[in-house]
Amino acid sequence: MADRVIIVQKANKTVYREGNVIVKEFVPGHPKAGVYNEAYIHACVEQTGLPVPKLISVQPGENGGTALTMAYVEGRTLEEQMREAPEKTDEYLEKFIDIQMEVNSKRVITIRNTRYKMIDAVESLKEIDASTRYELLQRIHGMKRHTKLCHGDFVPSNVILRSDGTFCVLDWAHATHGNAGADAAITYMRFSLENPELADKYLKMYCKKADMAIQYIQRWMPVVAAAQLAKGNKDEEKLLREWISVAEYQ
Ligand SMILES: Nc1ncnc2c1ncn2[C@@H]1O[C@H](COP(=O)(O)OP(=O)(O)OP(=O)(O)O)[C@@H](O)[C@H]1O
Ligand SMILES: [Mg+2]
Asked: Which of 15, 29, 155, 225 has the fewest CB atoms within 10 Å, measured from its CB?
């Protein structure tokens, strides 16, 4: 049997490689429906022809939880490559955005709608007052309806890029269909939280490539910040609350 190499270990799961497969094993008690949902989304996206790891199975894990198994994909993530060659940041960002636009060009209406996911997140967020929630919901209702595939967590660690230009997009747990402006706003937020020096560069480059007005993405920012606040990460709270407060006076 192949050796097991742990890639990521988090409170709710472990991701490991064993030979030519990757296993995402969730801890016992982690909702089984969430794992099946991730597998379902992954399978729907696989059908679009977008390069994603081949999904293999969902089955009971060795630890009593649920495990999702997929094919191991050769190559390195854009996060690793950006860290190792900071002088190539612009080149990598360009490719990263081209891939995001290719994702957004796909249509997958069999998965959840972005607006409903955002509405649920805002309605369940009791950490902000009712009037702010109302403003956020109005904002969501005013957004254009689309059916574009939105990854929902499009960050460099979820993209494998090879030297011949071929790529593979990982981690489909958060994907929805809807307005691509929301997908770009999420990526911008994730950069602002984890890699702030890249955030504005990303946003400018995205708007130029997608020929999208920056305001179109900015309108989503209080909304995506509210959805992220619902996840309860204490060290993100200050920035997210600042972003949300914009919704109160616009
Ligand atoms: N099929 C695959 N082939 C090669 N490497 C993979 C594959 N799936 C995952 N990885 C590696 O494992 C890492 C973590 O996987 P993944 O992104 O699915 O989990 P995660 O980021 O912890 O998930 P989440 O965002 O849902 O918490 C990736 O960044 C990548 O390095
Ligand atoms: Mg990931």
From this structure: 29
Residue at a domain's end among 33, 56, 71: 71
pTM: 0.96
102 and 8 share one domain: no
Ligand nearest to the CA of 172: 1
- Of the candidates 71, 103, 118, which is a domain's last residue? 71
| CA of 73, closest atom in ligand 1 | 3
Q: Which domain holds residue 230?
A: 76-248
Same-domain check for residues 218 and 145: yes
Predicted local confidence at residue 246, as pLDDT = 85
- In this prediction, residue 1 carries a pLDDT of 75
SS in 3 state form for the chain?
CCCEEEEEECCCEEEEEECCEEEEEECCCCCHHHHHHHHHHHHHHHHCCCCCCCEEEEEECCCCCEEEEEECCCCEEHHHHHHHCHHHHHHHHHHHHHHHHHHHCCECCCCCEHHHHHHHHHHCCCCCCHHHHHHHHHHHHCCCCCCEEECCCCCHHHEEECCCCCEEECCCCCCEEECHHHHHHHHHHHHHHHCHHHHHHHHHHHHHHHCCCHHHHHCCHHHHHHHHHCCCCHHHHHHHHHHHHHHHCC
195-213 pLDDT tens trace: 999 999 999 999 999 999 9
